[in-house]
Amino acid sequence: MAQTCARYSQYPTKMLQCLNTDESRELRSFLLDSGYNMQALLQCFGHDEAPQIHLLKLFTVGLTLLPNRLHTLLRWFWIGAAVDASTTHEFVPDRILDLFLKSGLLAAEDAQFTSAYRISPFSNYLIVSDQLAARSGTLRTDMVVWPNPTSQLCHYLSMQAPVERALDLGSGSGVLAVPLAAHSGSVVATDVNPRAREFCLFNAALNGSSNVEFREGSLFEPVQGERFDLILANPPFFVTPTMRHSYSDNGMELDGFCRTLVRQAPEHLNDKGYFQMVVEWVEFNGQPWRDRLKEWFSGIGCDAWVICSYSRSSVDYALIRMQDDHSESLEQAAQIELLKSWREYFESRQVKALYGGVIVLRRREGPNWVRMEELHALLSRPFGECMRQIFESRDYLGAHSDEDLANIRPASPPTTRLTKQFAMSPEGWQLAAIDMHLGEGLPYSVSLQPQVADFLAFCDGKRTVREIADQIAAAHGIDAAIVRHESCGIVRRLADRGMIVV
């Protein structure tokens, strides 16, 4: 068997090598046709955040996998285990094996085939990254990480409307650049980590994206003097005392890195261009976080929308970040000292709490608005287009009077749902609450009065606000002008939540 593997020694093992278009398509088709997808991963490993499974559990589950084509691929590209040559040749055609070796995804050694890479199903794509950990069980400082929950959140945040030029800032493996390429004329991907280049370009080729360019550098340095229609950023936003990993930490004081991105981004946006970022920020003692973030947006010439989706005490935040860094493997005394250093770091800077969520900027001339809100609901579905629609609704509503608004034909999105709750009373079941929910986009819900629910029942995109209001006024014997005024107010409030399309 050693001789069988020896014939593959001509292939590179040090880094990934992009295949040509036909070879990339062939390799990707083989993986997908073999059932290499997220459903298979969940079925085998039984965890909804499979990339974060502990190494010991991962290898333990791997021991139970029966020999077949899919499980051979999972051993290489998910568990990081070796497969012997005989099993390999039984389930993997020679042509595909040659492509795996030519690309660098596999290496032949000691009568076995091994991989230093992970292949992650992500949306409709396959993304190559470093393996979960080196054989030593530690993470390298320049690791190019697999798609994780933050990657997914940033993908959900991304607007999907076609654009000419897009920028993926802090691209890493290209997990966001590749989907961006599907609706962009061209994509520039940047990263301070030199190793990100080979992964980003390899993943672009593997997924058939020929319009992705990679540039190395920090912040906006690689694109000085250039402008884009859409900038997407999943930066190293962790708030940490020391620089540990380039993929998560940035070396700036507290949240200074993210503030710098917000202040510099407008210079690189075309008019009506968007900057979208996943972010964390701190709240100081005696200063609410909203007051502090106002300074970030002052004078930048952009509308700004902040959605806070979680908050942590400084101690809880430190514990979570230590776990992310696999610090739980340290001895108890070392863990206590590490936690102490984090606590002292935050206390010395008067940090009360840490917050996380998303920030969206839109470059626009004229008076700009700032919207900050807390939405403690799971952002578990695409919502970028919902946000874009609300930006555009604000433009329309701000430019039109109620008299204009009375002539539009409002409609609720098809996935909007209305729920009613009833409470028992001496007279029987009585209506207690009416709630309206968005079935897609942002997970908004609002409580409605019965009269408002009645108005919305007529919002089918066929009747004008005026017609609906006049019909309701006639039915209840109310002044039509009053109902029109109230109806326009309802439209404005619900359009600002994406619950009415104008």
Protein described:
The protein is of the alpha/beta class. The chain folds into three domains: 2-121, no CATH class; 163-311 and 355-382, Vaccinia Virus protein VP39 (Rossmann fold, 3-Layer(aba) Sandwich), CATH 3.40.50.150; 402-495, Arc Repressor Mutant, subunit A (Orthogonal Bundle). The protein is 38% helix and 23% strand. The protein has 19 helices and 16 strands. It has an eight-stranded mixed sheet, with helices on both faces. Strands 1-3-2 form a three-stranded antiparallel sheet. It is globular.
Number of distinct helices: 19
Radius of gyration: 26 Å
Question: What is the tally of beta strands?
Answer: 16
Which CATH architecture of the largest domain is right?
A: 3-Layer(aba) Sandwich
Q: First CA to last CA: what distance?
A: 68 Å
Largest sheet, described in full? 8 strands, mixed
CATH fold-level topology of the largest domain: Rossmann fold
Kindly provide the name of the CATH class of the largest domain.
Answer: Alpha Beta
Name the strands of the widest sheet in spatial order.
Answer: 8-7-6-9-10-12-11-13
Could you state the CATH homologous superfamily of the largest domain? Answer: Vaccinia Virus protein VP39
The overall pLDDT average reads 91
Helices and strands in order:
Elements: H1 2-6, H2 21-33, H3 38-45, H4 55-62, H5 69-79, E1 83-84, H6 85-91, H7 94-103, E2 107-109, E3 112-114, E4 117-122, E5 125-130, H8 149-157, E6 163-169, H9 177-181, E7 184-191, H10 196-206, E8 212-216, E9 228-233, H11 256-264, E10 269-284, H12 289-297, E11 302-313, H13 314-324, H14 332-348, E12 351-363, E13 370-374, H15 384-399, H16 402-405, E14 417-425, E15 428-437, E16 445-447, H17 450-457, H18 465-476, H19 480-495
Parallel strand pairs: 6-7, 6-9, 7-8, 9-10, 11-13
Antiparallel strand pairs: 1-3, 2-3, 4-5, 10-12, 11-12, 14-15, 15-16
Helix pairs in contact: 13-14, 18-19
